[in-house]
Amino acid sequence: MHVSSIKAVVLDAEERSVTSHLVTDWLEKLKDVLYDADNLLDDFSTEALRKDLMGGNKLTKEVRLFFSSSNQFAYGLKMGKKIKAIKARLASIESEANTFGFMVHDRPVETSFMIKKRQQTHSFVSKDKIIRRVMIKRLF
């Protein structure tokens, strides 16, 4: 599924969530797994930065990493398990989405909760609404 298709499905889901608690729950599950995926990517970035900041030549870095508390083999296994768990959750969420029959539109549909009309403003003011300083000075 492409990002534009995902966006269209989410828009349809948000529209339906107004009347369906099941769809609201589905959106919450999707949001939770996406936050977890984002945290996983942050972990990868942090680990890459930590490796870059470590001093010494390549062999020294590898030996230090192997014997450190963040062993690369153990780190890879741990991250692999997290990735599999996220993939399983996404598959479950996708199968739930199929039961709802969300519509994939060619372009995003504007829904009533997305459209917020702003009050139109202008610089025109009628003469009777203007109070001049001269009038105010006369009052005091």
Automatic annotation (TrEMBL):
Q: Name one GO molecular function term.
A: ATP binding
| Gene3D superfamilies in alphabetical order | 1.20.5.4130
Q: Which UniProt keywords apply?
A: ATP-binding, Nucleotide-binding, Plant defense, Repeat
Keyword flag ATP-binding: yes
Would you kindly state one Gene Ontology biological process term found in this protein's UniProt entry?
Answer: defense response
Q: Does the keyword DNA repair apply?
A: no
A Pfam family annotated for this chain is Rx_N
Domain (Disease resistance N-terminal) spans 3-57
PANTHER family, from UniProt?
DISEASE RESISTANCE PROTEIN RGA3 (PTHR36766:SF40), PLANT BROAD-SPECTRUM MILDEW RESISTANCE PROTEIN RPW8 (PTHR36766)
This chain belongs to which protein, by name? Disease resistance N-terminal domain-containing protein
Species per Swiss-Prot/TrEMBL record: Gossypium klotzschianum
What lineage does the source organism belong to? Answer: Eukaryota, Viridiplantae, Streptophyta, Embryophyta, Tracheophyta
